[in-house]
UniProtKB/TrEMBL annotation, chain A:
PANTHER family: UBIQUITIN-CONJUGATING ENZYME E2 (PTHR24067)
Region (Disordered): 1-50
Name of protein: UBC core domain-containing protein
Domain UBC core, residue spans: 51-204
Gene3D superfamilies: Ubiquitin Conjugating Enzyme
Chain intervals with Gly residues compositional bias: 23-36
Species, as recorded: Cyanidium caldarium (Red alga)
Lineage summary: Eukaryota, Rhodophyta, Bangiophyceae, Cyanidiales, Cyanidiaceae
Automatic annotation (TrEMBL), chain B:
GO terms for MF: cullin family protein binding; ubiquitin protein ligase activity; zinc ion binding
InterPro entries: RING-box_E3_Ubiquitin_Ligase, RING-H2_APC11, Znf_RING, Znf_RING/FYVE/PHD
Keyword vocabulary terms for this entry: Cell cycle, Cell division, Metal-binding, Mitosis, Ubl conjugation pathway, Zinc, Zinc-finger
RING-type domain mapped to chain residues: 23-77
A Pfam entry, by short name: zf-ANAPC11
UniProt protein name: Anaphase-promoting complex subunit 11
Record-level GO cellular component terms: anaphase-promoting complex
Classification of source organism: Eukaryota, Rhodophyta, Bangiophyceae, Cyanidiales, Cyanidiaceae
Gene Ontology biological process terms, A to Z: anaphase-promoting complex-dependent catabolic process; cell division
Source superkingdom: Eukaryota
Length: 204, 87
């Protein structure tokens, strides 16, 4: 089961990227969600279940309704990067909160949604500059239980991004996880969801 | 005096009795359906846990069937036990 899921995710991403860029594929099932007409609807990934599609469309329009997107000036502390090219891959901008160790720093999170989101958790990693934090590996992987074992379908992109921001905010020193080098060497290119995580620090 | 009623038009409204308006799993209103159903009402009922958290029955069943759930309520992580079907 593990390997099946891994294979499916691995196979889906590159190919659906190619399709998405040529034709913008679907529009299929793009009906629900409400929201404003001027918001461009991202191409729908073919393999998404109806539950995943409608949940993502709902969350997508909520980001727009609350104006927490990169269209907004000034940028909110957490925002959805627009335009979203594909419904199953979002980028969230995150700025370090004032009067924390990360004040003034900016980061990007990449969310990739499995076909049965929200029953299955999204894959969430930092891309680009990764914050220097005890639970963030230099390849962008996060050691955060809600992304893996403690995932709940009641969590949303927004609540996950908030948790990550609060994880950064509560840091008292900037350092990499002690096993960073070994881990990063080991998991070359693999999804963090394939890692078996041990969560030992409930305080953060 | 006597009056004769020639016709009447009755309208009824219904709503689920739940502590919340929307399902925490699919994020759609309880008075609509889960994503798999077409007609709201008895065909797509609510389920309430002993922890009092309501979901669409179909949504919570899907969650409980997944290994990720560990049998827990998505909102409070207590072990999920059906309370009763909403009336």
């Amino acid at each position: 089961m593990e390997s099946q899921r891994g294979a499916a995710a691995g196979a889906a991403l590159p190919s659906s990227r190619a399709q998405g860029s040529t034709s913008g594929d679907g529009g299929g099932g793009g009906g629900g969600g409400g929201g404003r007409a001027e918001v461009p609807r991202p191409a729908t990934a073919k393999s998404m279940t109806p539950v995943a599609l409608r949940r993502l469309q709902k969350e997508f329009s909520e980001w727009h309704m609350s104006s927490r997107t990169s269209d907004t000036q000034p940028l909110p502390p957490i925002y959805l990067e627009t335009p979203v090219q594909r419904l199953d891959e979002w980028y969230i901008g995150l700025r370090g909160a004032d009067s924390t160790l990360y004040a003034g720093e900016a980061f990007r999170l990449r969310f990739r949604f499995p076909t049965d989101y929200p029953i299955e958790s999204p894959e969430v990693v930092f891309v680009g500059t990764t914050p220097l934090h005890e639970h963030v590996y230099s390849n962008g992987h996060l050691c955060l239980s809600i992304l893996y074992d403690s995932w709940s379908p009641a969590l949303t992109v927004n609540s996950v991004a908030l948790s990550i921001q609060s994880m950064l905010s509560s840091a008292t020193e900037k350092r990499r996880p002690p096993d960073n080098d070994a881990y990063v060497r080991n998991c070359r290119g693999r999804s963090p969801k394939q890692t078996r995580w041990l969560f030992h620090d409930d305080g953060v | 005096m006597r009056c004769e009623i020639l016709g009447a038009r009755l309208v009824a409204a219904w709503t689920w009795n739940a502590s919340d308006d929307t399902c925490g799993i699919c994020r759609l209103p309880f008075d609509a359906t889960c994503t798999d159903c077409k007609l709201p009402g008895d065909g797509c009922p609510l389920a309430i846990g002993q922890c009092t958290h309501p979901f669409h029955l179909h949504c919570i069943l899907k969650w409980l069937a997944s290994a990720n759930s560990r049998g827990q309520c998505p909102l409070c992580r207590q072990e999920w036990q059906f309370q009763q079907q909403a009336e």
